[in-house]
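My current task is to audit a protein record that another person submitted. What it holds is a sequence and that sequence's fold in token form. Thanks in advance; the entry in question is below.
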Amino acid sequence: MLQIHINRRKANSIEFEKPEIKVPMRPGGECSFEIALINYGTPTRVHLSTTDSIRNYVTFLQDNPYVTNQEWIPVVVKLPSDISIGEGKIKVITGYGSHTETINVHIGGQKVESKPKPSVDVDTRLGDPKYKVENTKTRNRKLDVSAGEKKIPKPVKHEKLIIPFLMILLVTWILLITFVIKIFDPMLGALSVSIILIFLIFYSAISVMSSNITKKEE
């Protein structure tokens, strides 16, 4: 904020509270501040302007206020992206041009912080030919070991084949003594064979289901 005293020492006098205004900002930035016009005498018209060097950077939202007691004037400052510093003056005119005072204005000058470049860790051993040879041998050795590891096929369980084989022998024996030797009644022999075949079918189905479940668990 900048305070400007009007009519304090004499009629149409202009006094600045600060000798200069500094507006630190980066290129392409924008900021604002206020000018407080304090009138100690009769109501008067005050005109605000800038020199040509900063005319495009500074904008007064009210450049010709009528000050009776105290007025607050917003000021917007914009710095182009290709400009780092702007210097000039703000002009304050009273008494319809009879009295003029200026104050120096410095815009910009704020340093742009550079972002640190990301670092990459490099293994210095990679430049050593011996390290490359040893590393290659180690990789080849690992590949040979992994290639040599083969799955050993599981032995076939013959225990499950014993019961069906015995059932087939039993059916053959019943058919033999029923129809060839004719010891049993043919109806009884056929019934026995049917029962054994049904049991054999159920046993085979249960064996297949149990083997599938075992494979899924493995």
Q: What stands out?
A: Residues 7 and 13 are 5 Å apart (CA to CA).
